[in-house]
Write a structure and sequence with these properties.
Blueprint: E1 6-7, H1 13-17, E2 25-26, H2 30-41, E3 52-56, H3 80-98, E4 101-105, H4 112-118, E5 124-125, H5 129-134, E6 138-141, H6 147-152, E7 156-161, H7 163-166, H8 169-181, E8 185-187, H9 203-214
Length: about 230
């Protein structure tokens, strides 16, 4: 059918070209539109006054969905006790080495009281991830969708894994990000804190990621897809 497509990324661009002869509408993905909208209303004053690193918490060992999903592809990637033991040790070593406080950006489904129990030495915030990422020095993550914030704001990213996580479905998703962004990964079971690269990132890879997954390079900021009456 002679269908018009809204292209919000270059990924599989050629696929849509085979389906329609009409000129496509180039736009932003929902993730990128959210970043742009939040950035417009973001507070001018930093929530954290001193320099810090932000950890994109995503309930890796204890997400509530694990109890409802029995499929092999989404079983618990690591046990709770083992995970928080590893993550607390790394954050302690990280802060000591780089003189940067680690701040936790909690997953929307995570409970702050529960996280405080397992991460007692770190400040925890909810619903402020975009703001916290924008003003951070570096982003620490596994495979959170909020990594898009870090890429959009050109932040250095440190990916975390472990021996157990690496052999799970989560390990494969972390590897996908590493390959796309040309980043290294810290194995929480065995790492040399002195060899962690805190300062460099591949701008070419970041730009390609934005074009391929966040916003089509031909998108115009003034393009409007919906009128106020249709909202």
């Amino acid at each position: 059918f002679n269908t018009t497509f809204i292209l919000s990324r270059k990924y599989r661009n050629s696929y849509y070209e085979r389906l329609s002869k009409k000129k496509p509408i180039f736009f932003y993905s929902s993730d990128c539109k959210k970043i742009i909208d939040e950035d417009k209303v973001m507070k001018k004053n930093k929530v954290i006054k001193n320099k810090y690193a932000i950890f994109l918490e995503e309930a890796v060992p204890d997400h509530p969905e694990y109890d409802r999903i029995s499929r092999e592809t989404r079983k618990r990637p690591i046990e709770v006790k083992e995970y928080y033991k590893l993550i607390n040790k790394f954050f302690y070593d990280f802060e000591k080495k780089f003189n940067l406080k680690v701040i936790i950006a909690a997953h929307p489904r995570s409970r702050k009281t529960y996280l405080k129990k397992h991460l007692p030495n770190f400040k925890i915030f909810k619903y402020m991830t975009c703001d916290l990422v924008k003003n951070s020095e570096v982003v620490i993550a596994h495979n959170s969708t909020s990594i898009s914030y870090a890429i959009y704001f050109r932040k250095k990213i440190i990916f975390l894994t472990s021996n157990i996580i690496k052999n799970s479905w989560l390990g494969k998703e972390i590897d996908a990000y590493i390959n796309l962004l040309d980043r290294s990964c810290v194995n929480l079971d065995k790492y040399d804190i002195d060899k962690i690269d805190l300062y460099n990132y591949n701008n070419f890879k970041y730009r390609n990621y934005i074009n391929n997954f966040l916003a089509h390079p031909l998108a115009k900021k003034k393009t409007k897809l919906f009128t106020s009456a249709a909202r």
